[in-house]
Amino acid sequence: MEGKRSGSQQHCDLLRKIREFTRAIVEELSNGRSPTILIDRFRNYCTNPNANCCCSYDLSYGKEILTFRRESHVHRLDILLRVLLIVQQLLQESRHGSKRDIYYMHPCIFSEQSVVDQAINDICILMQCSRHNLNVVSVGNGLVMGWIRFLEGGRKFDCINCPNMAHPVPVQVEEVKDIVSVARFILIVEKESVFQRLANDQFCNANRCIVITGRGYPDIPTRRFLRLLIEKLCLPAYCLVDCDPYGFDILTTYRFGSLQMAYDAKYLRCPEVRWLGAFPSDSEKYCLPQQCLLPLTGKDKRKTESMLNRCYLQRDVPKWRSELELMLQRGVKFEIEALSVYSLSVLTKEYIPSKIKGGVHI
Amino acid sequence: MGDLRKSSMRFFSDQNLCYADILPPSEIRARIEVAVLNFLRILASPTPAISDLPLINRRSSNCRTSKGLLAQVSCVFLSHSFCTRSLMRANTAKAFIRVWKVMEMCFGVLVQEKRVTQRELFYKLLCDSPDYFTSQLLVNRTIQDVVALLQCSRYSLGIMASSRGLVAGRLLLQEPNQEVVDCSECGLSGHAISGDLNRLETLILNTDARYIIVVEKHAIFQRLAEDRVFNQIPSILITAKGYPDIATRFLLHRLARAFPDLPILALVDWNPAGLAILCTFKFGSIGMGLEAYRYACNVKWLGLRGDDLEMIPEQSLVPLKPRDLQIAKSLMSSEVLQENYRRELEIMVQHGQRVEIEALYFHGYDYLGKYIAKKIVQANYI
């Protein structure tokens, strides 16, 4: 895990790797040979209905070979080397930059953002590191509250003082130290509005826990922070999402990581995450009014069908797959807020506590 | 003399400013009860009638500007022109009922001493009256109607708002009886601005900054916070991460009132949307309803502006999208847009291009800090 070595040691290692990589290319070229660059391919799931897939979280499933003999490869390598140069500068100056910042440094050569994004992914794979090791960061979008206290780069985050107040999830997760917590579990919620409901009902007063949200699809700092909390505190993590295809997708992102960041899935996934709700069966159990059950659109159905083919569902979480199938069969979806129709505090006083106590999670 | 000044300001009766007040739950419940009682009184009177609901008109025709003589700020406000929701007219009958329904729901929430999110309110109304509330949009519009009827803020009605805002820099915040938060020690992410306006109201503020810099985008805010630009130029950085929300504007307004000598400078992308964001901080907007105007601040345009274009490489200029042109058109039609802003907007539309602030990184990472410092020192803001 990256945190074990000190940051500056990692910087030096990375700078050395960059120099070696570049030297190897220069040597090959000066000997009149075309350098061959191998980039591993990663995926954290496949949609092959055949049960035999070789998807894994740390191993690549193949390599891409780039040479100087093909023009498209040369262009891609040109971009890669330019981005590498910028990354080297960032590391040497101990600055951070975003993918967008990098694009704007040479907008004429990097004709569009996606080209820069691919180069950064390729560099991470080649150098066998994570994106933040390159000092490439994004803005943080997550929120956290509850019974936790920690330091980030010298600044104190004391949520214990005021457990119902939201704090932004730290962006430089590698700088987080001295985590102290008296929480008994971690609750992950999909939406900010649910987070607000929990804060307004002072959920953390009655429940010793940490609540975290990515406000939709979780960004990398949120996923890394969650992973850090689970590792350091060894707490169970329960995920509360809407009962719809996008909620399910967000749930799998927390648990298995995303396809885009598959090369880093080892550090971005949290296999301990359990699905607390909302399940399709909850609509009957909690007597949701008919009007709250909205029909699945054509787009929803297509998304659900494609998700059902993901190999990790059958292999690792068959119960999740059954619930997703049930959602498709019934053809309806509902949001968490629908549970609060008759009483605003149902979510915080009954639904969540009874599910956790009763172990009603999969 | 004071009377004379007051009366000259009220020379035209339609120059009464209409504000949405921030009120405690008891006061809102009282206003709702008064509305109900009045309705019943007229219904039960010797000449019974179903009274109409008078709402402050939220159209641009009811928008007035006042160019303050003493203050430099020109202010936009909604005047006393009313539109009515009436049960007697077929096209507003449903809207009439919707207003009462929302008032009923909000009353119930306030009695429980709770708050509700707009989404939760939608589901409650959907289940209670499915014929009247078929979408979130209808709920949001009706909430604005209630705000215009009771002349109170949305937050006072018990509707929770999130805040997207962040603040960093030379500012000390303290909630009564809590620890002091030093916003210059808040790391990359800055300090999150609470969505609770009551808490923002009671914050104790202290600063030694000389400027307040309003930043449109989160990424730029993060860059400036990381580079600690607020130490090089003593300043406070504030962002709403895009289109400003009420809480961020509220805090900015409080800062402007508490420290009136600090110029407020805006750093936005060079496109109509960026200018629209600047104008929303500056004047408020009709779309935000009745309460938007009270938080107007004298914000000046630091950058990006037309004369900065010479520093931008050709390839960073991107064509305007149709949406940009729509925004430009609606900004142009606003009578409150000052002449120099109008000229900038015209140049944007003529060139047909827009530029993001990140384009300045072409000259290196530290260029943004230098750019801001130079412009501030030259007082190059409009």
Taken in chain order, the helices and strands of chain B follow as HHEEEEHHHEEEEHEEHHEHEHEEHHEH
Count of beta strands of chain B: 15
**Number of helices, counting only DSSP H or I runs of 4 residues or more of chain B:** 13
Terminal residue distance of chain B:
34 Å
- Indicate the mean pLDDT of chain B: 85
**Over all CA atoms, what is the radius of gyration of chain B?**
23 Å
The gross shape of chain A turns out to be globular
Sheet with the most strands of chain A? 6 strands, mixed
For the biggest β-sheet of chain B, the strand order reads 8-5-11-10-12-13
Q: How would you describe the oligomerization state of the chains in this entry?
A: heterodimer
Radius of gyration based on Cα positions of chain A = 23 Å
Low-confidence runs of at least 5 consecutive residues of chain A: none
Main β-sheet, spatial strand arrangement of chain A: 6-3-9-8-10-11
Outline:
The complex is a heterodimer of chains A (362) and B (382). Chain A is α/β, with parallel strands linked by helices and 362 residues long.
Describe the structure.
The complex is a heterodimer of chains A (362) and B (382). Chain A is α/β, with parallel strands linked by helices and 362 residues long. Chain A has 14 helices and 13 strands. A six-stranded mixed sheet of chain A has the order 6-3-9-8-10-11, sandwiched between helices. In chain A, strands 5-4-7 form a three-stranded antiparallel sheet, covered by helices on one side. In chain A, α1 runs antiparallel to α2 and α11 packs antiparallel against α13. The radius of gyration of chain A is 23 Å and the shape is globular. The mean pLDDT of chain A is 90. By secondary structure, chain B is of the alpha+beta class. In chain B, the strands form five sheets. Chain B has a six-stranded mixed sheet, with helices on both faces. In chain B, β2 and β3 form a beta hairpin. The radius of gyration of chain B is 23 Å and the shape is globular. The N terminus of chain B is likely disordered. Classes of the chains: A alpha/beta (362), B alpha+beta (382). Chains A and B meet through α3, β6 and α5 of A and α4 and α7 of B.
